[in-house]
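Let us work through a complete example step by step.
Step 1: write down the sequence.
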Amino acid sequence: MWEIVDGYVTRHKMFTSGDRILVGVSGGADSVCLVRYLLDRSLDLRAVHINHMLRGPESDRDEAFVRSFCKEQGIPLTVRRVDVGWEASQRGLGLEETGRMLRYRIFSEIAKREDCHKIAVGHHADDQAETLLFHIARGTGLDGMCGIAPVNKKVIRPLLCLSKKEILVILERLGQNYVTDSSNQEEHYRRNYIRNRILPLFGEINPKAVEHISSLAEKMRKLSVLVENRIDSLWERHAIVRQKGWFLPETAWEEISEYETEALLLKMMEKAAGKRKDLSAVHVTAVKELLLKPEGKRQNLPYGLVAVREGKGLYIGEKEEELPRDSVDLTVDLTEGVAQLMIPGEEESFFFNVLDAETYFKNAEKNDYTAFFDYDKIKSRIHIRTKKSGDYLVIDQAGHKKKLRRYFIDHKIPASAREEMLLLAEGSHVLWIVGERISEAYKVTEHTQTVLRVQKIRRKSKWQTESVF
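Step 2: predict the structure and record it as tokens.
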């Protein structure tokens, strides 16, 4: 079985004969087996034991066993006592998460002090299978399917190729004793539940289930390398750095697969945030939906970031300070039944034309950039403009009004976007919040005789429609 571990260590280039290795020793079967393997390879070892102070006398028993074991094997040992329960309460985290975080922090500290090249821990194939099932149950992507990495910077896991049963067989043949952590049987810990309840059921389906699940993680890691290289290549080709974030031109996502698009968006968020934690598939989905929306639409993200759909792409980063659009107020002259207005300084215009109701009902194609109104209900000049104090719209057929300001608040439209939103209005009555909703008072009904069609057109835009009737 040592030869199996040798092959695994060699394949993943875990250490060389001259390395000094720090071993995490809990006293359990896994870590004891790891120490015996590394000793058989005549490596220069240092050991560390962390007493989590969670199990009273049992924790002290484990510490005493590790002290005796390391003395017997001639390995220098460092022992740290950490009140994980108190630390967890102070940090607002669970015991498992707090314990894991503190362990690796202490490992790194002692490895640096002892000039150790690597940090060895005793994870095995069952741990790998548990991790994979846990990630699947919680919801995961390709990264989560890779499970526990054999090598993660200085941390190495030589026993990932062995099952728990194989480790116990090795210790029995060596005549090596160890201690058992009674908390491993407490099934309120989610991983223990998977270990004690779920994995045995998989074993009934196939005795090699653990081996196969662990092998799947290995395959996913190989696939992950290929995917990561592809995403890095796309990133180098398309991503554009800005002062406070990143910009992705729309040509990028038009020519790649959906998976690649999602991976690029996650990479954008990670780059902008400077970290991966708390960035999930929910955020990727929300930003991906933004790609199909018109310019100006935005999505708030963790860490104070924002994703903004721009005319020629997508921006993710800190909220950029932009000069507000100058106040717009243009009168629409419909005396000829047709009109076109250009928005000063912008690449957009509005086309108006009056048509009979029969044409409307036969041919009208509705979208966010075209709106239709009962022309006979318009009694005075209408304007394309930005918002003014007192603006309102009618929200139902009973004629109830809602202040425009309240509408913006209810629909979570950012304050920075409200100043620039264009409106079609008759006095203070808003007919259309362009790109959003129209007032119920002007909607076309079965009694409408004449229809006003209003179309917003962006020049050189993939959203522009050229059909006019």
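Step 3: interpret the result. The two ends are 79 Å apart (CA to CA).
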